[in-house]
Structure prediction request, 102 residues.
Amino acid sequence: MEDKIYDDSEAVKFIQEHLPQEVQGKYTDDDILLMTDIMVEFYERNGWLDSDEDEEIEIDVEEIVNYVANACKKDKDCKFDTNPELIRWVIEAELDYEESLA
Prediction:
């Protein structure tokens, strides 16, 4: 079976649908897209996008959450809540979306 291709709009829809009730409505689709773009930046900085497909990558959710939260605090386009506890829900939902593609 062939792996599915990552689709930004499908990822955002998946993430929005998988956020817990208390987080739903806190982030717009554009907010989530910005966070996923920052996640890709994190992956690039760590060389994960260049790694062999068979290579197992150890994902530290806490490290990604902190990276995204800190990057958002510095980005003037981030006009949303940068509380790491809330961002964690988005990151975990995005990782679940990635996993659903395998």
